[in-house]
Design a protein that fits this description.
Elements (H helix, E strand, L loop, with lengths): L36 E12 L13 E2 L5 E3 L12 E4 L6 E4 L8 E10 L5 E9 L4 E9 L5 E9 L1 E8 L5 E9 L9 E9 L5 E5 L15 H5 L4 H4 L2 E4 L5 E5 L5 E5 L5 E6 L7 E10 L3 E9 L9 E10 L5 E7 L6 E6 L2 E7 L5 E8 L1
Parallel strand pairs: 1-21
Antiparallel strand pairs: 1-24, 2-3, 3-4, 4-5, 6-7, 7-8, 8-9, 10-11, 11-12, 12-13, 14-15, 15-16, 16-17, 18-19, 19-20, 20-21, 22-23, 23-24
């Protein structure tokens, strides 16, 4: 199948504020929501990463409670096979988490990864089973020293696009699977799946999420095109473990949908996150911050030029994790890199570059 490739997010032009005329309203008109607070994120601290040479990055980056950053470097010969690299908070220490050898699995690729509070790393893997002659998904759990803890077979034709661990020990895995849902005379299509794995990695519950992506039907004009392409709504989504014990699973849509899922597989609530402006497009990263808030990066385009991808600004919107209400919009200053790594009440962490083009961990706060 053809995988959609994310675009780079750029930041930098000025915001323009245009005053609006005051319009009288009748007393029967519904009360307007208070305006969302707008602040600017500026660079506060830069930590050059001396442990590794400068190189392009691949996919999303994450961090743990100690401020260590987990990322992947671009590996042109085998992009999806690139390992996860942990960079210490001081930029000097490195640990590599590579896909382990698994019997009857060839060419294992990392579709997704997550970091648990104990420092272990879950890898969502996809490879080829030469005996069954099928593509197969696996979850490999590595200890904080990079050694293998255990592996779990997700299933044939099932790609683990998101994986996230619960603080109680279970694991959520979500992605796409190929299925002939329209009959044996029709080709297989990509449909979403979401499962909870128990403490031993065994499937414990399968979830059907309301309003989740549905593939085109055979009579639809875009049916043939979808047969050969995985849905970007799923593959470009993200999953984040919250300190409240739940997992926040995001689908990449115009108005991002976030499913809040408990360790026993209960769907606690569904959040529909409003973008900061009509010309803003959601990025691929959602982060849970202490205090029950979610941070989501958006690229804002020049109005009327969204299709041409003419960027205006990068904005990080923060939402209430209970209600989905947008609380604060942060304009990201151009000095910061475009990769949001983590978010806490103390501020934001980005990946950027030094003036010498060296990789750097950037910490930012609002002014």
């Amino acid at each position: 199948m053809i995988r959609p490739i994310p675009s780079c997010i750029l930041a930098g032009l000025l915001l323009v504020w245009l005053p609006k005329p005051c319009v009288a309203q009748s007393s029967s008109a519904p009360a307007k929501s208070p305006p969302v607070t707008q602040l600017t994120l500026r660079l506060e601290d830069t930590v050059p990463v001396t442990a590794v040479p400068a190189a392009p990055l691949e996919g999303l980056a994450r961090c743990d409670g100690d401020g260590n950053v987990y990322l992947r470097f671009d590996q042109p010969a085998d992009p999806m096979g690139a390992p996860i690299v942990r960079i210490s908070a001081d930029g000097e220490g490195v640990k590599v988490f590579s896909p382990p050898p698994i019997a009857n699995l060839q060419g294992a690729e990392i579709d997704s990864f997550s970091v648990s509070p104990d420092g272990s790393v879950d890898l969502g893997l996809w490879g080829w089973d030469p005996q069954a002659k099928k593509g197969v998904g696996y979850i490999a759990t590595l200890k904080d020293d990079g050694s293998l803890d255990h592996t779990t077979k997700v299933g044939a034709y099932m790609e683990p696009d998101q994986v996230a661990g619960f603080s109680s020990g279970q694991t959520l895995v979500s992605g796409t699977r190929d299925a002939r849902i329209y009959g044996k005379d029709q080709p297989a299509v990509s449909v979403p799946f979401t499962e909870i794995l128990d403490f031993a990695g065994n499937p414990a519950k399968t979830l059907t999420l309301p309003g989740d992506f549905q593939p085109a039907k055979p009579g639809d004009k875009d049916f043939k095109a979808q047969v050969y392409q995985e849905p970007a709504e799923i593959t470009l989504g993200d999953a984040e473990s919250g300190s409240d014990g739940n997992v926040y699973l995001m689908r990449h849509t115009g108005k991002p949908t976030v499913y809040v899922i408990s360790p026993d597989g209960a769907l606690l609530r569904t959040l529909h996150l409003a973008p900061p402006s009509p010309s803003a497009s959601a990025g691929f990263t959602i982060r849970y911050g202490d205090g029950g808030r979610l941070a989501l990066a958006f690229a804002e385009f020049v109005p009327g030029l969204q299709k041409a991808k003419v960027f205006k600004d990068m904005i990080i919107s923060v939402y209430d994790a209970q209600t989905g209400e947008r609380m604060v919009d942060y304009l990201v200053s151009p000095e910061l890199g475009g990769d949001l790594v983590c978010y806490t009440s103390r501020g934001f962490t980005f990946l950027g570059r030094t003036p010498q083009h060296q990789l750097a961990i950037q910490r930012a706060s609002a002014y």
